[in-house]
Amino acid sequence: MITAGRIVRLAERDRAQVQFFLDGEMRRALAGDTVLTAMLASEQALRRSEFGPEPRAGFCLMGACQDCWVWQEEGPRLRACSTPVTEGMRLRTTQPESWP
Amino acid sequence: MSETSSPRIVIVGAGPAGIRAAVTLIEAGLHPVVIDEGHSAGGQIYRRPPAGFIRTPEQLYASEAAKARALHAHFDRLAEERRLTYCARSSVIATHGGRLHVLGEGGVQVIGYDRLILATGAADRVAPVPGWQSAGVYSLGAAQIALKAQGVALGRRIVLMGSGPLLTLVGAQLLKAGADVAAVLDTSPWRQQMRGLWQLAARPIVALRGLALRARLGGRYHAGVALELIEADGSGVTALRWRDAGGRQRLTPCDMVGMGWHLRAETHLADLAGCAFTYDEQWRQWLPKTDLMGRAGNGVYLAGDGVRLLGADGAEIAGRLAAAACLADLGRPAPSLSADLRKLARLERFARGLACAFPWPSQMVRALPDDAIVCRCENVTAGAVRESADFGGGEANRVKSLARVGMGRCQGRYCQLAAVELVAAQAGCAPGAVGRFRGQAPVRPAPIGAFLGKG
């Protein structure tokens, strides 16, 4: 079951739905969501820190801090705060084994 | 469109400074290239939501809606009429020898320039608070962007902390949008805020508007607080521990913390472009050196919060001035902007008032426990920074090499000022004497594939 995420939608709730996959599971977001918004709608964090035990959920939201990196199933990582989510997108919270 | 003889002018950034610079150049008959990280022009403060969002500029920008509308409409019309070349969603990652390396969706391309106007803006100036590496801690700017560009709050129960105009503004905006704001904690005590007052009177309407916003926060607002610890469990923030002005211990449960102490100029490209820097005692940061018009030398001009932290109105003026300086240097007729220069002086006085009323919390940073994290990218601790300063001396770049503080993926944007403060304390010198981290290309992480080309 998908538990409630970190974010609270306060406005702009009447947008078309978009489906994407997170670690293989189907999730729903709204058209116009960034990957960060889409993921945090059902998650508390985006990834784990490589240097400590804590999860990370982004920090600056303007492409400067690089805290919000997530990966696509095909390998390349992206900045969740500045990438729009798209229909059928396949995302991972961990780096794929074979590094492209 | 443009003749081969016409100079190639590139503007980096399409916030208020970049837009006004572009407009001024176009009015003089030139065709600038504008490179912008946004999906549409506006910058951070006048950032526009994606297509399909329905809130009006009045809802998004409140008292500043008319300015936002004017900037957006003007820029969009010029782009539509092809009087400028707009490269959206593109980052300048390096510059050398009159050429910019621009990372866009199709990889890296090289764009040459004769004159360069940098309008790169600013980001939150943050200071570490123990626990700030936890999920659910964001900059104040992030909280505002989430609300404005996505219509969301980044938590169910929010604590905002820091100091400066954004603290009050974001608090009031979140409350108005229906978010649960538990507390707004200002590290600047009332008596310090009063000290900035006479300079803040340079813009009485803006100052009064700030006070009105502050009043909306009601009992949530506390001045003169001491921030102690952001408590967290395995999934993120759970509470903030702080002391009020009377020294009483307080614990506020929350799942999101927004933090920021006014702004830090974004200067990486100015650094790579060879601009000289000076340490500004009042802003407590290194700022590029320019003349009043924004000339930095070598055909480089700076405008907006990336050089002087005057806010959006100041950025519009600085954009016009930088473009006028550029035109004058090209031997072309430039508009007379003496009224703009006078207004800039008034905005400067107001900004100095803000810097005085809402200062950088240097004592708080100096008192960080050794196990507190200073660099969020690589979890470098205050203790490691202090040890490096003891071992290698009080020089910023030596500490950077030894402790890796400032070498992470944000390239020192969010740790540099705190690290310098710690090094200065350890070495017994002024922060300005510690030096600044040298900027390195690429100033944004870029995948290797982007440099390999796509056939």
UniProtKB/TrEMBL annotation, chain A:
UniProt entry tagged with the keyword Methyltransferase: no
Protein name: (2Fe-2S)-binding protein
Domain of life where this protein originates: Bacteria
Swiss-Prot/TrEMBL keywords: Oxidoreductase
InterPro entries cross-referenced by the UniProt entry: 2Fe-2S-bd_N, 2Fe-2S_ferredoxin-like_sf
Molecular function per GO: iron-sulfur cluster binding; oxidoreductase activity
Matches recorded under Pfam families: Fer2_4
Automatic annotation (TrEMBL), chain B:
Chain ranges of the FAD/NAD(P)-binding domain: 8-189
Keyword Iron part of the UniProt annotation: no
All copies of domain SoxA A3, residue ranges: 375-451
The species this protein was found in: Mesorhizobium tamadayense
Gene Ontology terms for molecular function: oxidoreductase activity
PANTHER family, sorted: ANAEROBIC GLYCEROL-3-PHOSPHATE DEHYDROGENASE SUBUNIT B
CDD domains: GlpA-like_Fer2_BFD-like
Protein name (Swiss-Prot/TrEMBL): NAD(P)/FAD-dependent oxidoreductase
Keywords: Oxidoreductase
This protein's record includes keyword Cytoplasm: no
